[in-house]
Amino acid sequence: MADIDRQTIRASFVEPRYEIIPMKGVEQQLAYLPDNAIVTVTSSPTKGMDATLALTTLLRRRAHTRVVPHIAARLIGDNVHLKDLLQQLTELGIEEVFVVAGDAETPVGTFEGTVQLLRAMADIGHSMRVGITGYPESHAFIPDDTTVRVMHEKEPYATHIVSQICYDPAVTARWIAAVRARGTHLPIYVGLPGAIDLPKLLRISMRVGIGDSVRYLRKQGGTVARLVGGYRPDALVENLAATVADPEMRVAGWHLFTFNEIRRTEAWRQDLLTRYARTSP
Fold first, then answer.
1. Is the per-residue pLDDT at 219 higher than 70?
2. Could you write out the DSSP letters of every residue in the chain?
3. Could you read off the pLDDT of 224-251 as tens digits, one per residue?
4. What is the assigned CATH class of domain 3-276?
């Protein structure tokens, strides 16, 4: 890897985003977050938006922590519920949210998807930055032409894109280039799995519809069998270095899917910063 790419990669990991899940045990992991961490809080179809709001409130009490709660369309009852939620987030000092459709099979209210929710948020009025999801590989449940069309519809309401996990760096690189070729210029944060327990990673990956990526991972010369100590995303980072370093691709940084393995993921990041501080011989 060229030294310029190494320097760019190191700089891109100085301030990544850490995604966490509002579930039992996460509070014990929060101590491993670095100062000035940007933390995104997911929404659970079983626990509803209240769990997201509770963890967001807890994190806001931590000094030097910026919190980005997810707002899941299918977990919002109606415009009154949405307006109340936006007001609570504003009072908490939240400056950014991440808007998703959500994993609930049946909407709890009137919102079916992300575009409908984004339009309602715009009608209500707010000053928060808004992130939306991008899909580098074909989604198991959504046709490709639909994901392309919906991104175009969401773009006017968004400030940036966060890509779903993809274990094939070539697919991610091609997708970023395709997004730019279609005329979408929003900054992209590349979704990256953290350093986590491998069975957990594979289980979650299949559940969220990225089975093609899992199959790619399994084909990499027995990689899965060798990762007894857990998964580390070094190969993804190394193979995406040129894309991240290309200013025309407008990669803003990394979104670390920690799956609440914050201690291990942060230890991996610190190790990466140390290794990439050294120039190649």
1. no
2. --HHHHHHHHHHTSS-EEEE--STTHHHHGGGSPTTEEEEE--BTTTHHHHHHHHHHHHHTSTTEEEEEEEEGGG--SHHHHHHHHHHHHHTT--EEEEE--S-SS-SSS--SHHHHHHHHHHH----EEEEEE-SS--SSS-HHHHHHHHHHHGGG-SEEEEPP-S-HHHHHHHHHHHHHTT----EEEEEE-SB-HHHHHHHHHHTT-HHHHHHHHHTTTHHHH-TT-B--HHHHHHTHHHHH-GGG-EEEEEEE-TT-HHHHHHHHHHHHHHHTSPP-
3. 444 455 789 999 999 999 999 999 999 9
4. alpha beta
Q: Domains of the chain: which residue ranges?
A: 3-276
pLDDT on residue 105: 86
pLDDT-derived band at 206, boundaries 50, 70, 90: low
pTM of the model: 0.91
* Mean confidence (pLDDT) of the chain: 89
